[in-house]
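Quiz preparation item.
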């Protein structure tokens, strides 16, 4: 890692009181093996836990913003505007690069093909990940073993795709990703509080660029969240999917009623295979009720504006 005029790539991390895991994140980023120079840049929302001191020990630059001014899209726009590299790798404060090839594997996709606007990485659950989150992540687009190139022949051909194929075409996740700065200058992120990566990907794909999923670049990343939080996250995610690609996984209450017992049984089996116990079994049920309620209500809110009361919409979006 070198900071100076010869920087080819920037690693951008939005931070706020990043916690003890951040030391390992910075160690892994600082230890990347590349044949190009890169820098570390933080957009920090007022950390007071030693995050900034730790970052500076790793020669990172820091841009400070007010916590009240933070949005996912806005913070990334600010960071990319200040980046010295032609390629900007974006990650989060608790995603640990799996090896020393994390950064080079993303950048190589861009140096070899000018039409690639963005690259995103594989996400590997943490060793202590709960069995429900582990299973969910292992089935996700961001955990496939094979490299995949996503593109559309034209805006019209994209719009003609069914919802799931649209989603497969524009999936992009800035938990760990890299964008070409010259493309970002024409297509910046929108200053939204959630889903800025999917929104950006759809716009650049429709503009004729490619998105690449590169599993040779991987991070270790997962969360152990409450059932209430999982409901809220499912709500905002599925509201976005309904608005963006027209996808409703549970379009009717009857489908929710049919899906819920199937998922509960599946997660009870996962709990049993993980050692069981009353607490884990209770979590299996609570999480299933929570996230499937979020999926149902989110799809409704995105596809039928006004169906979900405003007070409930605001409450479900809060804190995600």
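Solution:
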């Amino acid at each position: 890692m070198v900071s100076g005029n010869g920087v080819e790539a920037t690693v951008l991390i939005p931070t706020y009181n990043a916690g003890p895991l951040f030391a390992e994140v910075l160690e892994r980023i600082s230890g990347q093996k590349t044949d190009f120079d890169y820098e570390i840049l933080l957009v920090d929302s007022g950390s007071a836990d030693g995050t900034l001191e730790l970052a500076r020990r790793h020669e990172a630059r820091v841009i400070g913003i007010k916590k009240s001014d933070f949005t996912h899209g806005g913070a990334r726009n600010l960071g990319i505007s200040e980046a010295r590299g032609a390629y900007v790798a974006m990650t989060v404060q608790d995603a640990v690069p799996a090896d020393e090839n994390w950064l080079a594997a993303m950048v190589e996709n861009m140096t070899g093909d000018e039409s690639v606007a963005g690259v995103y990485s594989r996400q590997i659950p943490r060793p202590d990940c709960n069995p429900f989150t582990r299973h969910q992540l292992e089935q996700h687009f961001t955990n496939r073993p094979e490299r995949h190139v996503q593109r559309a022949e034209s805006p019209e051909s994209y719009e003609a795709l069914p919802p799931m194929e649209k989603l497969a075409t524009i999936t992009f996740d800035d938990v760990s990703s890299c964008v070409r700065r010259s493309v970002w200058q024409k297509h910046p992120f929108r200053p939204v509080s959630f889903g800025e990566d999917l929104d950006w990907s759809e716009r650049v794909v429709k503009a004729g660029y490619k998105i690449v999923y590169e599993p040779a670049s991987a991070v270790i990343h997962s969360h152990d969240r409450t059932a209430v939080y999982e409901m809220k996250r499912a709500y905002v995610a599925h509201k976005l999917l309904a608005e963006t690609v027209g996808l409703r996984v549970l379009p009717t209450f009857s489908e929710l009623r049919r899906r819920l017992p199937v998922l509960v049984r599946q997660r009870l089996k996962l709990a049993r295979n993980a050692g069981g116990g009353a607490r884990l079994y209770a979590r299996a049920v609570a999480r299933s009720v929570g996230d499937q309620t979020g999926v149902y209500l989110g799809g409704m809110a995105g596809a039928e504006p006004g169906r979900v009361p405003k007070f409930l919409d605001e409450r479900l979006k809060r804190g995600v």
